[in-house]
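Can't paste images in this forum, so I'm doing it all in text. The chain is below; anyone willing to post the predicted structure tokens underneath?
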Amino acid sequence: MNNSMKKISEKWQFSAAVSIILGLILLLLPGISTRIVGYLLGALAIGLGADRAVKYFQQKHIYPEFFRGDLMLGLLMATLGILIIVNVEMVISLVPIAFGVALVSNGIVGLQRTWMARQGAYEQWWLLLIFALLTFGMGVVLIINPFASIKLAISIVGGCLIYEGISDLLTMLLAGKKVDGWKELNK
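Text version of the structure:
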């Protein structure tokens, strides 16, 4: 395996591991983890907004027209952060939809990989198709019906992340060895 493919493989493995770990946290601790994420997002927005506002006042304003918006943008970001913290339940309710969109996107990429595997005469391309369709389907379910209970939805998102990480690892194991063969066929 050449060096660039090895780096891609390592990044893919890392991404899959992070997905599995995050999925386990969301699956086992849905209430706590979603609140923490909501509060962290709010705190991050407040911090970025405050930083922008402070930098506005620290500028020497050699070119004031370039910095006019910094104060307003900083105040808006800080206000958004406060609103996120105050309305953390509303922010949490958007999480399943966001993950659904991510899974649909991953499913589409998986379908593209499946097509390439089939064209490359990979014998088990149909396994890749199953993974891609399941990923796509789970994403659609999360978008269409983010469920009445946010905790249940977050647990399901956790399960989907675990599945996504495992399917990425399996895809890499099943198809990774055939990459060089596909290159030879496509020359």
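The chain has a mean pLDDT of 81. The two ends are 18 Å apart (CA to CA).
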